[in-house]
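ok so i was messing around last nite and threw this chain in just to see what happens. nothing serious, just curious
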Amino acid sequence: MYMIEISISPDTFNSFLRKFMFSKVDYLYQIHLILVESMGSYLPPVWRLFKGGKVLGYSVYSADEIISNRCTNLNGVSIRTKDFVVTKQEIVFDAHAAPTGRTKFNGKQVERDVFLNHVDWCKVNNTIPLSREDVYKNFIQKKFQGIIDVSNMQLTHYSLDKVSRRRHQEGVHIRKDLKSVTIPNVVISGSGSITNINALYDCLINGISRHTDFGFGTLLLR
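result:
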């Protein structure tokens, strides 16, 4: 297993968008398209975007494997990896998620912010709702059951972001059926002790929440 760092140069970012005419979709989706174009099936299932176009995540492939097999050689996309092994029982983590859940709203099954679902449930049951932070912490806590015994958590980032959803077909980007949805963008930071190391590795590679595309669902250890 490797920790992977991917950097995208501004020139590559701009030239790619001009080529495929994706300038009107959100930034996370633009990054996703560039990564898919450059890495294909070697793209990590989950990743997190940081300022300056740097992407971090975990991969089962080394940089040499990815570079020698990737489908398109985008010179402005650099890839570095280093061996990663969890050596301590106690860990410090950042969990980046879009905490949403399916519910019935206005007669339809929809996917909504779990905090809004919680508030509606409290109204129906005449109870006092938890804070937004506590609802999100409980959401992450459930994802960690049987994996991490959490000792503390705090909400370190919250925003409501519009993200794009598009259909893909045979690896071809399709500009039809654009759908923009607003979802909560949340980072929960905390610490705890590992109770299932194999399940933890699976979370690091494959993500921790329903949304594991376009920069969401990433668990990073510090």
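not much to say yet. Residues 42 and 192 are 31 Å apart (CA to CA).
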